[in-house]
Amino acid sequence: MKNVFKKETVSTYLKADARLTKSLRARDLLALGIGTVIGTGIFILPGHEAALHAGPAVAIAFLLAAIVSGIVGMAYAEFSSAMPVAGSAYSFGSVVYGEIIGWILGWSLILEYFLAVSAEATGFAAYFNNNILESFGLNLPKALQAGPLEGGVINLSAVLIVLVVALIILHGASLSKKVENVAVVIKVAIIIIFIAVGAFYIKTSNYVPFYPQQFQTSPLGLGGISTAAATVFFAFIGFDALAANSAETINPEKNVVKGILGTVGVSVVLYVAFSFVLTGIVHYSKLNVDDPAAYALQVIHLNTWNKLITIGALIGIFTSLITMFFGGSRLVYALGRDGLLPAKMGVVSTKHVVPKNAILVATIVQAFFAGLVPLTELASLINAGTLLAFAFISFGVIPLRKRHDIQNKGFKMPLYPVLPCIAGSLSVYFIIMLPNITKISVGLWLVLGLVVYFGYGLRHSKLQNK
C-alpha cells in the first residue's frame, strides 16, 4: 500500500543535485532576485492596479505585499539554509509534509512560473512594439501584435523573446548570471532616474482622493488595497526562484539568505517610490495601460526620457524573464528527478550541465501562452499558486524545526513560532482576496494536478518505489 504522505529525505535530494554546478554567489543571487522582482511587476502592474483596484493607494498595496513577502522570505531563507536543494517549495514540502503536498506545491508553482514567464514576455512585447518599433516608423500588423483573445493571431514579439531567453538558459547558470549582473545595474539606475525626474512633475491633485471611495470594499474598506496587493504578489516571486537555485549556490546557508532578504529590501523601496511618482504624474484612472511609465512620460512631453524608461523596462523585464525561466525549468527538472513527471525531465546534459529537456518543455509551453493569451488574463492566474506556496512554506517552518534529522547551522526565522504563523495566515488572507475567477481557475488546475499525480506520479515515484 502506497503512502501519499511519505516524506523524502534531504540526503536523497543532495545526492541527486550533486550533478549541478555550484557557481552562484550572494551578489549573483541578489542580481537574480532583483532581476525577477524589478520586471513586469514594476513597469506594468502599478498602472493596472491603480486604475482598477486602489488608485494612488497602489503604493500602499505594494508596501503590504513587500512586507508580507519579506516575512515569508525569511521562511524560504530558513528552508534554503537547512535544505540547499533544487525545486524550492516543492522539495521543501516533500520533506516536511509528504509527497502529495510537495506535489501540489510543485504543480502550483509550475503554473506560476510558466505563466509568469508568459506574462513577462507579453509585457516586454507591449513596450517593444509601442515604443521602440513605432519610433522607427515600424508597425507590426495587428495579427502579429496580439493573440486570438484580442483580435489578432499571435503576439510575435512575445514568442521571440521567450526563444531568446531559452537560448541563454540552455547555456547554463554562468552565462545567465553574467547577463543578469550587468542588466540589473542598468535597469535599477533607470528606475531611480524615473523617480528623480518624475518627482518634479507630480501634481498633488492627482493624489486626491488617495484611496477612492469606489475601491473601499469589505473587509473594513480595505478590499481594493487587499485585492491590489494580492494581485501583485507574483512580482515578489523572486526569492522563490532564488530558493530554487539553492543547489547551484556556493555556501547556500549564507548566500541564499543574503540574496532573499537583499532582494526584498531593495524592491520595496523601488516599488513604493515608483508607484507614488507614477500616480502623481498621471491621474490613476488613465493608467490602465501595459506601458504606464512610458505613457506617463509622454503625457508630460518628456519624449527623450520616455525612450530611456522604455529601455529600462525592456532590460528589466528581460532579466526577470531569465530568472523566472530559470526557476521554472529547475522545478520541472526536480519533478522529473523524483519520477513524478517523466524521467527525461530529470536528465542533465553533459555539455552545459543544465536540464535540457525540462528547459525545452518550459520553452514550448511559455511561448504558446505568451503568443496567444493577453497579459491581464495571465497575471490574474499567477498569484494563487504563489500565495499557496507562501502559506505552506511559512507554516512549514514549525515541522521543520521539529525534524532532528535536518541540521541547520545557518539562518533561522526570528520570533518563532509567532512569525511563521503570521506569515502563513496573511498568505491565506490574500488568497481569499483574489478575484473569484482566479480561485476557480487555479482550483481546476489543482484538480488536474491530482489526476496527474494519481494517474502517473504515484506509480512512477522514486520515493514510493524505494
TrEMBL record:
Record keyword Transmembrane present: yes
Record-linked Pfam families? AA_permease_2
Membrane spanning stretches: 29-48, 54-77, 89-110, 152-170, 182-202, 222-244, 256-282, 308-336, 357-375, 381-401, 413-434, 440-458
Keyword annotations from UniProtKB, A to Z: Membrane, Transmembrane, Transmembrane helix, Transport
Task: State where the protein is found.
Answer: Membrane
Whether Membrane counts among this entry's keywords is yes
- InterPro entries according to UniProt: AA/rel_permease1
- Gene Ontology CC: one annotated term: membrane
| Bilayer topology annotation | Multi-pass membrane protein
Q: Which GO terms describe its molecular function?
A: amino acid transmembrane transporter activity
Q: What is this protein called?
A: Amino acid transporter
What organism does the record attribute this protein to?
A: Liquorilactobacillus satsumensis DSM 16230 = JCM 12392
Biological classification of the source: Bacteria, Bacillati, Bacillota, Bacilli, Lactobacillales
